[in-house]
Design a protein that fits this description.
By secondary structure, the chain is α+β, with helices and mostly antiparallel strands.
Length: about 750
């Protein structure tokens, strides 16, 4: 790891001063520049490209002379004020700029590497940026934002701040390491979008593009790659574009400028943002994993780009050894590129990677490599994504994972028995998936694996009952809800969760709401039946439900039979009323009552021979109007998202085809795929629900280039929106309908890579 030369500190040491004086005595006729070159050669003061660091050396020598520690030859010339080249007139105002970044023509990022572009950059900054054009210090990089409409803005990168308490604490380096490696942090010191433009998503597009190429450009010019980028946001700006481009707010400045040696703190306090160019920068720097807890809400797609998502969702996992954590990130990254294939195929003959993955999965049962620890970073980021939402639905459900065809796996349970008495072996997965009010998945909160065993004659304890799965999930959700005071958190479950113990449990955790579809026509505290009571109330409104078609499916060894269904539009009558349940919880002697609201929806005119849709939904959420009842019903309909996620797990990530010798290993491998399936599902839904998003939020440059070339080869425009990019993937995969998650999991990276090799 190359360290930055400490020129001034080295020369200020007594040994350094004596050596410089000796060099000057050896060459009494040398001028200042010649002395600086000799000093650079003697001390090894060269940059990453092997060039003498003459300017920094001269600055240090002049400082020593002012301190009276040595005498330099008289300067041959007097340095004058440096005059930067400018145009001499304002840069032409861009014409015809649209309101969306997708409407811009020939939008491009132009690197400033000649005098003509430098003059344009200087003129823009001098006239239109509040802090002018500089001077910038240290290693620098400049860009212009070009288009067919004219120059839209500019950016400038230079040396980072000498020290920042909040930044340095977040990075975790001490003073010596900071002085040696500060060059690995570069500052975004100028960012200008020209006044008068209102082009949506332009800032996010520019930031995404420049950060993808900055490392290569910086290395080509200066000989080394930066690992982090820092910038500052000054009020009244809020940093929305930065957060949308995956920047991280780490704290605020103290109000001191770079030259504030008197600690006057006369500058405005600014927010400090950092961007991670290299996912493994902490390992390279040797500062250990990131802090376990990071504050601040996360945008839905923040940090999910192809290059960094695995580091964000798995980095810092507490596995007991940072090498295992690094292996986890690398393995998840590889599997995310092609989740339907085995790891040996995904690794593409990289046998050290294969060996490392199986070493991770095959840790002893008592090790720190557990599903909970694997999912810990993802859960923390899910919590932060929840923090950015007004309402979050925590969907609970269970699914059986059939491993009957893998009898070598130790510890499997009995998940079913067929007509002949043959037992099906596998695991039961009970999980909680968080989604926002629009049904977009925020992440996996909870995953519990069970290997069900036949019970004896003894009565099960409360923890041994199946109903306890839902109680455990509710408790876990309630613990998270307690940390989210500004977010309405609601636990949603289907009919299997209809148990009085669950409703009583919610009374102990009022910070989380509860919404369960009723299965039992319970007797209420007043003696009446639940279903009859709500049916007797007046209709308060109607809702329309689009019922999707469903193909007929015969029974297989792993899947039950399914009846076919024709797509239709159903009109449902809506009712609601308060009810009081009365019952006894496990271990209690006296009955208690629970106040709930039941929302009833029934199909008014079903097709002939078709059973009408009828739902009874019990909830602790206050319902006092038809609109609120319809909202509760809409929330319940989003419960199907977790079933879609289970389908992605099984069909898109092939978790029931994993072959490991023990359930501990199997659970670790599945835990990784839980997050991969969530990301695949989110990417698919974002293409449908948020088609206007820029595609580089989720796709890498190589993927976008391949898909763009493929589209142009078929005489279509290059995709500029997320929806267009998803459509190109579907076309490339030869599908004719909008993509489902399974299509997406099968095609996204594997097929774009294939297209690249084929020259599309």
């Amino acid at each position: 790891m190359r360290e930055q030369n400490q020129i001034k500190r080295t020369l200020s040491e007594p040994e350094g001063v004596a050596r410089v004086q000796a060099l000057m005595r050896e060459c009494p006729e040398a001028h200042r520049t010649g002395i600086a070159d000799q000093v650079c050669a003697a001390f090894g003061f060269v940059d990453a490209r092997g060039r003498f660091q003459r300017a920094s050396c001269l600055k240090a020598l002049r400082s020593l002379e002012r301190a009276g520690r040595l005498t330099l030859p008289a300067a041959r010339t007097q340095p004058g004020r440096r005059v930067e080249r400018r145009l001499g007139e304002a840069v032409a105002t861009p014409v015809g700029v649209g309101s969306q970044v997708t409407e811009l023509v020939d939008l491009a990022l132009v690197r400033v590497d000649d005098a003509a572009h430098r003059a344009i950059w200087n003129e823009l900054m001098a006239r239109e940026h509040p802090r002018g054009m500089g001077p910038l210090v240290g290693a620098q990089m400049r860009y212009l934002i070009g288009s067919a409409h004219g120059w839209l803005g500019a950016l400038g990168f230079a040396a980072s701040a000498l020290q920042l308490a909040a930044r340095d604490e977040w990075i975790g380096w001490d003073r010596a390491l900071r002085e040696a490696q500060r060059h690995r942090v570069v500052g975004l010191n100028r960012f200008l979008l020209r006044p008068g433009m209102a082009c949506r998503n332009l800032a996010s597009w520019v930031l995404g593009r420049v950060l993808r190429r900055l490392g290569n450009d910086f290395e080509a010019l200066h000989g080394y790659r930066p690992w982090l980028v820092e910038t500052f946001i000054e009020p009244p700006h809020s940093g929305v574009s930065l957060r949308a481009s995956n920047w991280r707010h780490v704290g605020d400045t103290c109000g001191r400028g770079r030259q504030d040696r008197s600690h006057a703190a006369a500058e405005t306090r600014k927010a400090i943002y950092l961007y991670e160019l290299e996912p493994d920068w902490r390992m390279r720097l040797g500062v250990g994993p990131a802090p376990a807890r990071r504050d601040g809400p996360l945008a839905l797609a923040e940090g999910l780009d192809a290059a960094h998502w695995a580091e964000h969702e798995f980095g810092g996992a507490p596995l007991g050894d940072k090498r295992l954590t690094k292996r986890l990130v690398d393995s998840a990254q590889r599997q995310g590129e092609d989740p339907m294939r085995a790891f040996t195929a995904v690794a593409r003959d990289d046998w050290p990677a294969v060996k490392g993955y199986y070493r991770l999965i095959d840790q002893p049962p008592e090790s720190e490599v557990t599903p909970e620890h694997i999912l810990a970073p993802h859960r923390e980021r899910t919590q932060r994504r929840m923090q950015a939402q007004a309402t979050v639905l925590c969907l609970q459900d269970g699914t059986d994972l059939n491993f009957t065809t893998h009898p070598q796996t130790r510890g499997l349970g009995v998940i079913g028995t067929n007509q002949t008495g043959a037992q099906s072996l596998g695991l039961h997965l009970h999980s909680t998936l968080a989604v926002n009010a629009d049904g977009l998945p925020l992440g996996v909160l909870h995953a519990q694996f069970e290997a069900p065993q036949p019970r004896g004659d003894e009565a099960p304890t409360q923890e041994e009952k199946k109903s306890f799965r839902w109680i455990a999930g509710l408790r876990d959700t309630a613990a998270l809800a307690a940390t989210l005071p500004d977010t309405q958190v609601i636990s949603v479950a289907d009919r299997e969760a209809d148990a009085f113990d669950l409703y009583a449990e919610q009374q102990q955790h009022p910070q989380v709401g509860l919404l369960v579809r009723a299965k039992h026509n319970r007797r209420l505290a007043n003696g009446q039946r639940l279903f009859d009571t709500v049916r007797d109330t007046a209709i308060c409104g109607q809702v329309v439900l689009e019922v999707e078609g469903q193909s007929l499916r015969t029974k297989t060894s792993k899947r039950p039979a399914r009846l076919g269904r024709t797509a239709r539009t159903a009109e449902l009558a809506l009712r609601y009323c308060p009810v009081t349940l009365r019952g006894t919880t496990a271990g209690a002697d006296q009955p208690i009552t629970v106040e709930l609201t039941v929302v009833h929806a029934v199909e008014l005119d079903p097709p002939t021979g078709v059973e009408p849709i009828e739902w009874f939904v019990l909830t602790t959420v206050a319902v006092s109007s038809a609109e609120q009842a319809a909202e509760v019903l809409r929330w319940y309909r989003l419960r199907w998202r977790i079933e879609d996620w289970h389908r992605v797990l099984k069909s898109g990530c092939k978790i029931d085809e994993l072959g490991h010798h023990s359930t501990e290993r199997l659970e670790r491998a599945i835990a990784i795929r839980l997050v991969i399936a969530w990301r695949v599902m989110l990417m698919t839904l974002l293409g449908r629900e948020a088609p206007e998003l820029p595609p580089d939020l989720l796709f890498s440059d190589i993927e976008l280039r391949v898909l763009g070339d493929y589209a142009q080869s078929r005489r279509r425009e290059r995709p500029t929106r997320l929806a267009d990019t998803v459509r190109e993937i579907v076309i490339l995969e030869c599908y004719r309908s909008p993509p489902g998650s399974i299509t997406f999991a099968n095609s996204k990276t594997n097929r774009t890579a294939t297209a690249l090799h084929c020259g599309c």
